[in-house]
Automatic annotation (TrEMBL):
GO terms for cellular component: membrane. The keyword Hydrolase applies. Pfam families: Abhydrolase_1. It comes from the Archaea. This is Alpha/beta hydrolase fold protein.
Amino acid sequence: MGTFKGLEYGIEQGNGKPIIFIHGWLGSKKFWKLITPYLDLDNPVIRYDQRCHGGSGCKPFTIRELAKDLNEMIEELELDNPILVGHSMGGMTALQYAAEYENFSGLVLLATSADTPDPENKSVEYFLEQYNELEKSEWAEEITENYVAESEKPEIREMTRRELQKADDRPIRNGLKAMIEYDVTEQLGDVEKPAAVVAAEKDGAITQDKSEQVAELLDCELKTLNTSHQMLPEKPEKVAGIIDSFVKSVS
């Protein structure tokens, strides 16, 4: 375990191109442990906590600042052309990085968007407003019902509700504001590196058309999994298989 400029990260040594796993809003590097048993790779792996999440320090951020954090960590660790794997807001960080920096060899983007997410029932702005007005437990319940209500696993809904309720105020507010301001749609046409985009068929947070837009902008294949937004705990073996195939294709 290491720390760089307040970012906490972990490295697993291996051979080949390094893979950086970037978690989403209110997640942490531990989130990726869900798919580790299913990965069939020997590459070096870096998992880190984005600013204001997990064990990392907290100060206000935009998605662009999260991408800058990522770039500085890549430079500090002297990583050459890593593969970036991002889920949700982590995918936004990866896309912002790809729009501004060149030191990477490919992208795996899970349930993410090229601009402000447009949830199926309620807007991101709405949930920020509701956070200011509702009790924390009511707010957590409303987000859970909108984002993962269609999950086939009750334990996924309960896990989501629990994580939302215990989340700190700072990443909640900062993350929602950052996603409201985020938009790289005009820049992605210049990105020429290979990518894999994965949509969640029952995603109430980042709807399937947002993933379709990312795939179109990056001119890459779109895969769809029959999951809610929480695709890692719902279909870890499927997600791991897609990552395996992509890494082998660019190695």
